[in-house]
Amino acid sequence: MNTTISAADRKGWMSLLATADEARLTKLWQGCGIDPVYEWLRPPEAGSVMVRGRMGGTGAPFNLGEMTVTRCAVSLEDGTVGQGYVQGRSKAKAAMAAKIDALMQTDAAAGVRKAVLEPLAVERQTKKNARAAKAAATKVEFFTMVRGED
Amino acid sequence: MYVAVKGGERAIENAHAWLAEERRGDTSVAELSLSQIREQLSLAVNRVMAEGSLYDPDLAALAIKQARGDLIEAIFLIRAYRTTLPRFGYSQPVETGEMACDRRISATFKDAPGGQVLGPTFDYTHRLLDFKLAADGEVPEAPVSEPRQEATPHITEFLQGEDIIEREPASDAVPGDLTREPMSFPAGRAVRLQSLTRGDEGFILGMAYSTQRGYARNHAFVGELRIGSVPVEMEIPELGFSIEIGEVELTECETVNQFKGSKTVPPQFTRGYGLVFGQSERKSIAMALVDRALRWEELGEDNLGAPAQDEEFVLSHADNIQATGFLEHIKLPHYVDFQSELELVRKLRREAAELAETLAAKEAAE
What we know:
The complex is a heterodimer.
Chain A: H1 7-18, H2 22-32, E1 38-54, E2 61-76, E3 81-87, H3 91-103, H4 109-137
Antiparallel strand pairs in A: 1-2, 2-3
Helix pairs in contact in A: 2-4
Chain B: H1 9-24, H2 34-40, H3 42-52, E1 54-55, H4 57-66, H5 71-82, E2 87-90, E3 100-105, H6 131-134, H7 156-161, H8 189-198, H9 201-212, E4 220-236, E5 241-257, E6 270-277, H10 281-294, H11 311-317, H12 320-329, H13 335-365
Antiparallel strand pairs in B: 3-4, 4-5, 5-6
């Protein structure tokens, strides 16, 4: 088990997995060709998280509404624990996320990163950029018309 | 006398079978898929998520299909489903200042840094029916431009530089949760905002409109309206740190309102706030107007007796599921209730007739 993993690193891949498109994640995961032996520490369970906002965007918190989240936890043969917390109600997606989280703490990390996480990260950025590019095209360019006497 | 009856099981079964058939409609027409509803009726999906108070576009699409497009019925289905989910916890407050904005406009500051971004808006369309849509036309791709990389600041921040608008004091106070404790009054702003964001769009719109028409008027400018997505983070107990557990699309509206100041506060602008799941522009503006109207007391304004100033009135009637439940229950059998009323009316009439008879007899005798 690799013990040099930083919380920031782990947060990075867990966040990426939480919002990944399930069909795409499944394809990349299957393509990765790793099928670890594992036990459920917590089988996948769908639930909700209450999302909070802030008054005026910056003030005191208030409860905005819930979102669906599915979570689970696995333990690999060597005892490495993986957590899956994903948006939506897919148990299969949560399971993949937990297994990947576990593997990312083992010697298989480099392979999984290359086969699954890197493509996901690139595609996520591409998608975000495409949307931002469309928004940018709708930015208003004002021009001033001189009116009245000079 | 009333004898209890039972029955109607077969009628109910058959009614539901017919409902299923009617829901499907003409089978020679292709069936709607959930992804079609989710992608092409996205504003209906957004409304169901906002008022169902559960962010899940797939579930909202299913609810719309099952409810035959009746959005309040769909919201009802979502609310019912919501209660079956275990609650894993509360997210950290979303940082709307870090929103990836699809749209961001201000009616007060033309040259705000970050600019006016129209996004996919109905504004400036001519509201003429587009018959090309009936012909299943292809859509050209939207033009693109150099994407903005840096965060888009809130416009009220610029006003705060001059201290000309009230500040929203940052706090980590735990807000009340109306899904956990029954509402009591005064509810406080946190619970008011929770109630307004899940409240019926039509009702909130009507209340907001009443303030514009003069009931508790507090002239509002849209300081900023933004639509986009923000990450949702939650602390995971097993990890001891927070991760992003998802992303939600939000519409946020900040209004800038008149305020004349008081003995202790110099004249400055005040704020109303709206934040709603999904793209829901009308709702978020309406929410901000009603939020501001309900703040009359803390801002030292007069209570003019306007409906939009009455917290208890607004919050008690904003929820369309509660309203629907109570309203629609009156169509269900009330045979016993009505029987007792009927008895009462008959008795009153009998008494009145007897009295009239006695009086008439008395008069005749005289």
